[in-house]
Structure formats: structure tokens, C-alpha cells
Amino acid sequence: MANLLARDNPFTIILAPILWSLHFLVVYCTNAVACAKGWGGVTVLGLGLVDFTVLAATVVVLVLLAGLAGLAWSRFAPVKDARDYVHEHDPELARQARQRFMALAGLLQCGLAFVATAFVALPVLLVPKC
Predict the structure, then answer these.
(1) pLDDT over 70, % of the chain
(2) Which of 52, 64, 76, 119 has its CA 20 to 30 A from that of 22?
(3) pTM of this structure
């Protein structure tokens, strides 16, 4: 089985948006089901059910995104010396440039997904439920 977090695997670029979309799904499905079933008054550890679920899902996803961003940064930093060389004649430089691009793309996707995750959680925590 292929390593999904390998340096050359494109999955590392799309993992951050996948995490964000799962968070989006959990947040809005939890809110919809809680309102439809009348669970607005249910509390978990002193918080409402929706608030607790959104807070827990948000913390988990933000920690995972921070870890992915750290992984992408660590992969981006060691190959900074690839610079702007023409890579057509040197396969090693071409490989380094590809790895650097994938690391930067993954890092930027993590940043975007981090902000998007915070914005998904914000209305659910600020706007009254149901």
C-alpha cells in the first residue's frame, strides 16, 4: 500500500481541504439534527450539545491542520536550494523542485483550510441555535 503522506504523493495537497470539508459536514449536520430532534437543551460537560460538538470537532481539525502544516514546512525548508535552475537536464533538481512545489502547495492549503475551519465554526458558536 502506498504511503499517503509520502513526499511525492499528491494526497498531501488535498488532505487539508478534505479535513475542512469533513469538519463542515460534522458542524452543519450536528446543528441540523439537533434542531430537528429537539436536542437544543441537551448539555455535555456544561456546554450545549451543538456547542460541544462544534468545539471538539474544530479543535481536532485545527490540531490536524497544524500538524500537516508543520509537516509541509519541514518538507519545504530542506529543498530551498533548488532555486530557479533549469531542471530539464538534471532529474535530481527536477525532483527537488517538484517536492518543493508540493510542500508549498500543501502548506498553503493548510493555511486556507485553517482559516476556513475557523470561519465555519464561528457562526455556530455566535448565532443562537435553532
Answers:
(1) 82
(2) 76
(3) 0.81
